[in-house]
Amino acid sequence: MIRDAKQYIESLRDGREVYMYGERVEDVTTHPSLRKAIDHGALDYELQKKSELRDLLIIRSPTTGAQIRRYFQIPRDSEDLLKRQELIETTTRHSGAVIPFMKEIGTDALNALAVITYLVDKKYGTNYYERVQKYREYLAENDLTIAGAVTDAKGDRSLRPHEQHMPYYYLKVVDRNTEGVVVKGCKLHTTSAPIANEVIVLPTRAMTEKDKDYCIAFGIPVNTPGIKIISRAEPANLGSFDHPLSSRHVTLEAMTIFENVFVPEERIFLDGEWEFAGPLANLFATWHRFTGICYKYPFAELMIGAAALVSDCNGILHATHIREKITELIIYAVCIKTFGQEAARQCVISENGIAFPNPLLCNVGKYLFANNYHMAMKLLQEIAGGLVVTAPTEADCKNPATKEFIERYLGGRKGVDATTRIKVMKLIRDIGASGFAGEWYVGTLHGEGSIQAQRISIFRDFDVQKCVTYVKDLLGIP
User: Fold this and answer.
1) Of 76, 162, 192, 440, which is most buried, counting CB atoms within 10 Å of its CB?
2) Rounded Cα gap, residues 437 and 434, in angstroms
């Protein structure tokens, strides 16, 4: 069943335990801040109505023949990965350059699980892979939204999970029986958790044998008893004129608490196989960084368009220093796009025939867009000028006592009126100098893993010894 926005929104009225601004939210669909995020996410459920997008968004299930969303496709080659890149880019572009995060992270987790559980089954004779595939089919056939819960609270980061003075800084299995397990702890930064149908939980790091009770992966409904979600606050805004992007397009982050939550056996995908926790976390990171590369490109396009348009309004589009800055933005965007494409083209095929993006190229691509984001935004701010933060509000533009003066003095080059110029400035303020912008700054640095995490992965995945051998051969050193 391919759902529409109305069906998605209705599915969220399920008694889930969500908190925001210090209060329990009785119905997430009627809460103003949450509803803004819900309406943004609901765009993902309407795009298939555009005939030119349907073939990209919808495919036939290889097992049931039913129509499902392409997100649930198991990639088998580079072409499948390139289609996934196009899918995420296109969906983001049609959502105001802000990714909806309805299925992207969840299917990143599913794809990583599909590779790693096959290896676990091969070693231990478990049936995790079959469970993952059944879960994928269930999600696909019901067209459900999925949050990914990976990052633990961690406590003292110099200590392993079992060494912590508080035993639940990492999500822990506290009881096992013939029907399933009970878990306790929390996960941080769970994107879309307050407005998703299901949550997939993965371990966040490599484990030792003493940490095996923390080595747990599973997928359950968000309204499962014992799950409590604390949603982060939303930046206040003055409406679509003053905040043209963030007034309509926003994603949610949350703290997801598991207070003695029961997980049935058929939904458990890893339980105590500690040596596979690290490989699973790393492979999820690869998938998630590929997603990051895909959705950052439309945002980079937005920055280029805003830079060019504000320069035109100011009458300096063809000035040498402006063209140089816009060229830098273009280079930034093309690097993001290219690393995504090459990560797909130079994919790795797993033992069970699943294609996943090249880990080294994913990490380099993510590092480049995160490490250079502040530079790119600085260029946009330089190009636009101070009116970005000093322009009058919509109310001032409409007030008869001030409207005349705003129109007289804030116009741009000949043919550009004050309202047009201010609108462009407001967009740049929204993405570069607002509460929303601040969250994007931090999110770009730490989303899909911190910059340091990419450095570690890049050094690990690159063959440094090959380069050493080359130099030794060149110098005749044994």
Assistant:
1) 192
2) 5
Give me the torsion for CA of 218, 221, 227, 229, rounded to 10°: 110
5-276: CATH superfamily:
Butyryl-CoA Dehydrogenase, subunit A, domain 2 (2.40.110.10)
Structure tokens at 130: 């079959």
CA atoms within a 13 Å half-sphere pointing along the CA-CB vector of 86: 13
**Widest CA span in the chain:** 84
**Degrees, nearest 5: CA angle 135-138-142:** 145
Rounded CA-CA distance 105/99 in Å is: 11
What is the DSSP track for 252-269? --EEEEEEEEEEEGGGEE
Tell how strand 172-177 and strand 180-188 pair up: antiparallel
| pTM of the model as a whole | 0.95
In 3D, which of 194, 380, 365 has the Cα closest to residue 295?
A: 365
Which residue from 305, 415, 279, 433 is spatially nearest to 359, judged by alpha carbons? Answer: 279
Per-residue pLDDT, 80: 98
Query: Contact 37/195 with Cβ under 8 angstroms?
Result: yes
**Parallel/antiparallel/unpaired status of strands 17-20 and 227-231:** parallel
Six token digits for residue 173: 């299995």
Tell me how many degrees the CA angle 290-292-298 measures, rounded to the nearest 5. Answer: 115
Q: What is the CATH number of domain 279-469?
A: 1.20.140.10
β-strand 146-149 against 172-177: which pairing, if any?
A: unpaired
Domains of the chain by residue range: 5-276, 279-469
Residues 286 and 84: beta-carbon distance below 8 Å: no
In the DSSP assignment, the letter for residue 392 is P
Pick the closest to residue 389 from 418, 431, 420 (CA basis): 431
Contacts of 68 (CB under 8 A, 6+ apart): 2, 58, 59, 60, 61, 140, 141, 143
Low-confidence ranges of the chain (pLDDT < 50): none
Residues in Cβ contact with 262 at an 8 Å cutoff, skipping those fewer than 6 apart: 180, 181, 182, 224, 225, 226
Give the containing element (helix H, strand E) for 175. Answer: strand 172-177
Q: 3-state DSSP call for residue 245?
A: coil
Grouping H, G, I as helix, E, B as strand and the rest as coil, residue 415 is coil
157-200: per-residue pLDDT in tens?
999 999 999 999 999 999 999 999 999 999 999 999 999 999 99
* Residue 226 amino acid letter: G
Q: Say if residues 73 and 332 touch (Cβ distance below 8 Å).
A: no
**For 51-127, where are the alpha helices, taking DSSP H only?**
51-57, 78-93, 104-124
Give the DSSP per-residue string, 287-321. Answer: HHHHHHHHHHHHHHHHHHHHHHHHHHHTT-TT-HH
Site of tokens 């945002």: 299
